[in-house]
Amino acid sequence: MRIASSVLTMAFVCLAGIVLAQRGPKPPKIIYPEFAFDSLTAREQLKRGKGTIKGIAFTKPKNNFGVKPLLAERIYATNTKIVLFPVTPYFDAWLALRRKKEGKHTYVYMSDEAFRFRLETTTDSYGNFTFTEMKPGRYFLQAIIGWSTSHSRNVYTGSGYSGYGRTDYYTPEYYSVGHSDRVEEFVEIKESGEVVSIKLH
What we know:
Blueprint: H1 2-23, E1 29-31, H2 39-45, E2 51-59, E3 75-76, E4 81-86, H3 89-101, E5 106-108, H4 112-116, E6 119-122, E7 128-134, E8 137-162, E9 165-189, E10 195-200
Parallel strand pairs: 1-5, 2-10
Antiparallel strand pairs: 2-3, 2-7, 4-6, 4-8, 8-9
């Protein structure tokens, strides 16, 4: 009986290990604002007006302390999507929740209905973008800028022997590391026909 019990226990432990391995890493938690979205307010703010928002989107590489130096070279958002949201009470609730709760394993999303009320444009090769026919009001602009850095390392390729002993040989190997930065900015058109210029970085 003891042998049978031990075998059963081992089988249970192995099975539990397999189940845990299949589960993998814990999936991220997704939360939404507990705030009613008013589509009429968002729709009204996105009606056509006479204002213009002109901007340039870029980022900068961070140093070893995670800071973007002021004098660092700009990385322009080439052919990158720029998204514009009207700043409504729902948006304020979403942003406040994101600032409070978003982290490594938690994402704060808008409702599908709220996300539909947005405008989009694409930058040119130098990061320039424009939103035309905008009404007076506050807006929030966002973009994800992808870029990469080049690196090299020496890879061992073999050894040779002579009367002086062993010599190891290395060959440089080049590779790239991908990065992505989320850049965001508020902008306000105060009067009809105004042209507002911003830097999205």
